[in-house]
Structure formats: C-alpha cells, structure tokens
C-alpha cells in the first residue's frame, strides 16, 4: 500500500470519530434538556399542590369547607 492511500483512510477514521463524538454530544445535550424540562414540570406541579393545600387550609380555617 502506498503512503498516499493510507492518508485518506486515516482522515476518514478521524472524520467518523468526530461525527460519533458530535452525535454523542448532541444526544447528551438533548437528554439534559429533557431532564431539565421534567425537573421544571415537577417543580411547577409541587408549587401548584402547595398552593392548593394552602388555599384549602385557609378555607377550612375560615369555615368555608367542612
């Protein structure tokens, strides 16, 4: 094999490795975004539940509910 034939092969290997790394980084970023969105949704649900509990306690104290 000549030296000229070996250079493009090595370049293609590096290119494929760079593509794999890029795809892994994109996948990692998407996973982080999804986890962050789930975490924010959880915080919103918790805040809504706490607000409802506070309103219910205030209503019970004010004799509005049994």
Number of strands: 0
Helix/strand-derived class?
mainly alpha
Shape annotation: rod-shaped
**Which percent bin holds the helix content?**
over 70%
Mean pLDDT: 86
Provide a concise account of the structure shown.
This protein has 66 residues and is mainly alpha-helical.
Can you walk through the features of this model?
The protein contains one helix and no strands. It has 66 residues and is an all-alpha fold. The longest helix has 59 residues, at 3-61. The protein is rod-shaped and about 80 Å long.
List the helices and strands and how they pair.
Elements: H1 3-61
What structural keywords apply?
mainly alpha
């Amino acid at each position: 094999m000549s030296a000229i034939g070996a250079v493009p092969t090595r370049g293609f290997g590096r290119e494929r490795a760079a593509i794999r790394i890029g795809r892994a980084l994109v996948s990692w970023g998407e996973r982080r975004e999804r986890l962050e969105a789930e975490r924010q949704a959880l915080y919103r649900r918790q805040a809504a539940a706490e607000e409802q509990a506070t309103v219910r306690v205030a209503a019970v104290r004010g004799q509005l509910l049994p």
